[in-house]
């Protein structure tokens, strides 16, 4: 283990997770997601071919459950992305309403993270126009705008607090978590709804295919045979506050670290400089050392460059002392939702005291990457989890979640 990287970050006050609603390929709610995590199997990882221009089948993380209808809302709010959000919100409606009643609608903020928002509606609308010569009546440009997720939540809940969307590619919703922490610490608001949502669509599938970053088989993080990502769709909605929840386990966001190495528009810095700084910033903000972390949920995209970089960065700080795995074989890479859904998985591991997910791959570890300790069946030895999200452009995020005593 090497010396820590100095970041001059002041320790932050923890903010507490009051409730979490989620959907992904793993499950349609907390109960089904926990059941899938215990089996380390994902029912929603399926093979599709109709969304790729070359007609070649690829594996995606899909949500098949029935979603909340938005037909009663104005047309600009009707998108699958917003349906995902509405369905996750319905899972935590009592806690959200209690927060609004306690603090007032002007003291509850919404910070969303997304990459493609509702752009699938535009893809569908253009396909319709090719056939009918005009856009469909139920299409509105606002459905695809980046601000759509936060606007939607504020609209349906009649909230009057700060409301905005962060879009920094695959670190978007992890950065939204950090933004929520700062809003609470500044006392601008008393509660924050953190939303991470992205939806499957041909644009992203074909875009990553053109980048030659798409795997046509189940992805293999840290394997010598890894060839690319599986894209997925997911949503997580967390309610954060400054006080510990009245009931149940106490799970907190302890620290958040951000960096931007700006090495390349799509390739990560080969030495992981920005990743190291983000992880160290999160540790410093949480007032923790590397010895305090019990598990690392890696970004782990299964691309050759990311896994080589991330393993090197993790090894520099943690050596081979902390179990590491990527949960993307269970959810797919959910792009702008990745930070939030992986934080939600970390939350569930802590809340239900689960064994962290073992690393799914073909068992053929890449001998060229740094020798980090890949998670197999190791119980969570320490109740603190580091979750990484690294994005295009060198936009890096690390979050630390921890379970605390109620006293």
UniProtKB/TrEMBL annotation:
Name the CDD domains for this protein.
KAS_I_II (cd00834)
| Keyword Cell inner membrane applies | no
Q: Does the keyword Transferase apply?
A: yes
Source superkingdom: Bacteria
Q: Which SUPFAM superfamilies match?
A: Thiolase-like (SSF53901)
Q: In which pathway does it act?
A: Lipid metabolism; fatty acid biosynthesis
Concerning PROSITE patterns, the annotation shows:
KS3_1, KS3_2
Record keywords: Transferase
The Ketosynthase family 3 (KS3) domain, residue ranges = 1-403
One Pfam short name: ketoacyl-synt
Do you know which InterPro entries this protein is assigned to?
Beta-ketoacyl_synthase (IPR000794), Ketoacyl_synth_AS (IPR018201), Ketoacyl_synth_C (IPR014031), Ketoacyl_synth_N (IPR014030), PKS_Beta-ketoAc_synthase_dom (IPR020841), Thiolase-like (IPR016039)
Q: Known NCBIfam families for this protein? A: PRK09185.1
Family, according to the entry, reads as follows:
Belongs to the thiolase-like superfamily. Beta-ketoacyl-ACP synthases family.
Q: What is this protein called?
A: Ketosynthase family 3 (KS3) domain-containing protein
Organism listed in the record: Vibrio stylophorae
């Amino acid at each position: 283990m090497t010396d820590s990287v100095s970041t001059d970050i002041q320790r932050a006050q923890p903010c507490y997770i009051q409730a979490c609603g989620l959907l992904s390929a793993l499950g349609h709610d907390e109960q089904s997601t926990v059941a899938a995590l215990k089996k380390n199997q994902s029912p929603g990882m399926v093979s599709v071919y109709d969304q790729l221009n070359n007609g070649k089948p690829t594996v995606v993380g899909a949500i098949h459950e029935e979603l909340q209808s938005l037909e009663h809302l104005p047309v600009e709010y009707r998108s699958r992305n917003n349906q995902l959000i509405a369905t996750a919100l319905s899972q935590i409606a009592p806690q959200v309403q209690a927060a609004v009643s306690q603090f007032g609608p002007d003291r509850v903020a919404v910070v969303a993270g997304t990459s493609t928002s509702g752009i699938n509606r535009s893809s569908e609308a253009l396909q319709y126009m090719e056939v009918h010569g005009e856009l469909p009546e139920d299409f509105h440009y606002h459905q695809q705008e980046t601000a759509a997720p936060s606007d939607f939540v504020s609209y349906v809940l009649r909230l009057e607090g700060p409301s905005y969307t962060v879009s920094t590619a695959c670190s978007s919703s992890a950065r939204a978590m950090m933004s929520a922490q700062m809003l609470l610490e500044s006392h601008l608001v008393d509660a924050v709804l953190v939303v991470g949502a992205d939806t499957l669509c041909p644009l992203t599938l074909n875009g990553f295919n053109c980048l030659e970053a798409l795997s046509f088989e189940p992805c293999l993080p840290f394997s010598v045979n890894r060839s690319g990502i599986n894209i997925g769709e997911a949503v997580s909605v967390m309610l954060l506050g400054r006080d510990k929840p009245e009931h149940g386990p106490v799970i907190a966001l302890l620290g958040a670290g951000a960096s931007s190495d700006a090495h390349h528009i799509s390739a990560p810095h080969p030495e992981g400089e920005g990743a190291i700084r983000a992880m160290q910033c999160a540790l410093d903000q949480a007032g923790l050392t590397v010895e305090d972390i019990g598990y690392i949920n890696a970004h782990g995209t299964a691309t050759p460059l990311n896994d080589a970089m991330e393993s090197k960065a993790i090894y520099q700080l943690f050596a081979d002392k902390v179990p590491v795995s990527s949960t993307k074989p269970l959810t797919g890479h959910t792009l702008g939702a990745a930070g939030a859904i992986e934080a939600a998985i970390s939350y569930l591991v802590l809340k239900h005291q689960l064994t962290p997910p073992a690393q799914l791959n073909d068992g053929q570890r890449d001998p060229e990457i740094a020798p980090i300790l890949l998670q197999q069946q190791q119980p969570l030895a320490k109740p603190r989890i580091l979750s990484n999200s690294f994005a295009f452009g060198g936009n890096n995020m690390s979050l630390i979640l921890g379970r605390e005593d109620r006293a």
